[in-house]
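Sample entry (275 residues):
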Amino acid sequence: MSKMYLKQEKEKNMKKLFRIAAVAGCLLLTASPALSSGSGAKIAKPSPDAAITKLKDGNTRFVEGKTNHPHSDSARLILAGKENQGDYAYATVITCSDSRVPVERIFDAGIMDIFVIRVAGNVVDVDEAGSIEYGLAHVNTPVLVVLGHTQCGAVTAVTDAIQGHGHALERNIPPLVDNIAPAVKRAMAQNPQAKGKDVIPYGIEENVWQGIEDLFLSSPATRALVKSGKVKVVGAIYDVGTGKINWLPQAKTGEILKKTEANPKRATEAMAGGH
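Predicted structure, serialized as tokens:
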């Protein structure tokens, strides 16, 4: 056997090995999102406290102009087309439809990070409670944020109406925002020194607590998740002028839950029948 022949055979074998290695590498990258892109790396769901910290840290980056824009590339889009959001999302957020409250941006989050529910006045009625239940029980997020915001038009409209300065509204708006009325009345009673527009900031905070109370009253499933420690419900208010989120005391959520558990009007059947 000539040296030339042996050299040719050696080169052919080396090329074959390179081809096999290349194919194996491609298969490995395809099968493992964690290896193919940092955007696709599956991670274990954080604890409720860790999820809250993640949201707080994201908002700090947003306010300081140091956003990372995570999970926003084409690899994450491809992943979203293949994967279940329940394996990735770490928070459910219900907030107002106001265009000044871009949820993923203010938390410096990306695709498949936050399960978002938006409705004027961040009220919690049947549709919103059902959406929250889906976020907590099926998307498996460990935290729910009820997020109000400064200069809320819905709270302002209800405050004006209660103070006798209301104006005509389209037929579907009053039943949409009627959940806000108890919050505004409570704000006025608790802050008698506030008059006119000065009531609105107090009403905005009370409306967050009202949303949490309305949720607990109508959702035994949410109450059970909170009592088990699997989920935390927190209130917060976003400042549309600064980008900063003011996190409300978590202890108040516990007080509302305790109050709801003692309310005979609370819903008690967690599951829908006949489906």
